[in-house]
Amino acid sequence: MSTSPAPAKSTELKSRLFDGIARHDVTSILEAATMQQVIANAIVFHQGDPAHSLYLLVEGRGRYFYNTREGRKMLLPWIMPSDIFGVAALLPDSTSYLVSTESVTDSFIFQWDRVSIRGLAERHPRLLENAFSIAKDLMHWAVDAHVGLACHSARERLAQTLLNLAHDIGDNGRDGTELNLTNEELAEAATVTRFTVSRLMSEWHRRGILEKSRGKVVLRSPEKLFTL
Fold it and tell me: Could you tell me the residue range of the domain that residue 118 belongs to?
């Protein structure tokens, strides 16, 4: 990461982190952060690293991931503009990050070191409340993922994953909602095999639900996918 001037739109940033906080206080909170530029596919922090900073994504796209003991990289939720990550830096005791984070595209992020953000949270208690409310959403994601794995078929999990990703990171194109994703990424996100992804995507392509090319999906009929 490198220190960089803030993008112009960062001054208009709206994030749940600042809900209920006066505008002039939000300005002072942002002024206490350092703007960092992150190139695509760069690691922001590794699981197990000391939780030294809280981050807020201003521009670009990132995601969480976890490396198993066997060396498998498991993809977790996406990080979108206005999302925070590294909430462990707000905890009172020294702790470490539970998962890793990486940039998916060239990105800009605000970074607060642990001492600074904890000091700001003492002056603005709502900041801490908002951060842990956001962290709670990630717990909901983990519960939903576990329930899906235990109760839903591979077909249902992949269909729901595509619908969720279309909502979160999809771009509206001429032929439908476009997603820049590989079969491997879809397999990790839906907790299915790449073979299953390939088989189901081919079936849904024949049915006109979507189009699949290398590293890209165009969702043409989400209503049909929803019925699955």
Answer: 2-150
* Cα three-residue angle 190-177-72, rounded to 5 degrees: 25
Number of domains in the chain: 2
74 CA to centre of own chain = 13
Residue 119 sits in the same domain as residue 174: no
Tens of pLDDT along 72-101?
Answer: 888 888 899 999 999 999 998 778 999 999
pLDDT digits (tens, 9 = 90+) for 111-132: 999 999 999 999 999 999 999 9
CATH number at residue 15: 2.60.120.10
Tell me, rounded to whole angstroms, the distance of Cα 139 from its chain centroid: 13
Cα distances from 45 to residues 20, 71, 151, 154, 228, in angstroms, run 29, 17, 33, 31, 37
pTM: 0.80
